[in-house]
């Protein structure tokens, strides 16, 4: 018992004044400011968005503050710990575990590569990266060493915080190295990218930017055909088609993503044809099941 600890905490002067005045609006303002300062340690945010979130919740500031803090911890702080552990697992599962290769990966993970790191870092303060941001990075890729640099450099940033741009570059490099194959790691990060993209694109002010971003990202994957050869073409098309179907969720209007892709018209036509083919096959499967029943 004599080893028990005592903890003391202090209210901010702003909160104390509001408490003494029994001013609910000032108390809410003080709590929002405190949460804003706390969140700023982990990611760039707009205080007005936090205040809007509180007002739109319709909850008392006490209830909202507790829920908001818990959600933030699990969405961002727990996210970091989980991603870092998964990175260590991926690190150990690499085929080449020679000392020289391990040293290189560790250096890339912690120090990055001056060829790509500045451009990756520049995305940090832009919630939705512009197509030019992505294209400027992949245009510098010349060999598999560059691909490795992008994988571990982007992975290091993703372990800190999820960002559409870092995820897109990481997934591009992952597909490049796997010769167009979809791996469990690709599917996991791709699901995160789609989930975050859908959240942002649901806001009217972000919709056009989100469409341009996704169109650029899908174009990047298709254009890998020029690096990987014709043998990987079908895998790349199917990979892109699966992503389009995932973000469409049956909404044909979202197929306009294909029109945002910077590819030849014949490629757009082929993707449309792939989608129609899959839809017809599903309809036939349902019809055959109905007849069999």
Written description of the protein model:
- This protein is mainly alpha-helical.
- The protein has two domains: 10-41, no CATH class; 69-292, no CATH class.
- It contains 14 helices and no strands.
- It has helices at 13-21, 24-39, 47-57, 61-93, 99-111, 117-122, 131-138, 144-160, 164-177, 184-201, 207-222, 225-228, 233-248, 265-292.
- It is globular and about 70 Å long.
Proportion of residues in β-strands: under 5%
Number of DSSP E strands: 0
CA distance, first residue to last residue: 71 Å
Give the biggest beta sheet. none
> What's the domain count?
2
Class from secondary-structure proportions: mainly alpha
Number of helices: 14
Radius of gyration: 23 Å
Coarse morphology: globular
- Mean of the pLDDT scores? 84
Poorly predicted runs of 5 or more residues: none
The secondary-structure element order is: HHHHHHHHHHHHHH
The percent of residues in helical segments reads over 70%
Give the topology, please:
Elements: H1 13-21, H2 24-39, H3 47-57, H4 61-93, H5 99-111, H6 117-122, H7 131-138, H8 144-160, H9 164-177, H10 184-201, H11 207-222, H12 225-228, H13 233-248, H14 265-292
Helix pairs in contact: 1-2, 2-3, 2-4, 4-8, 5-8, 7-11, 8-9, 9-10
What are the defining features of this structure?
single chain; 293 residues
Brief sketch in words of this structure:
With 293 residues, this protein is mainly alpha-helical. It has 14 helices and no strands.
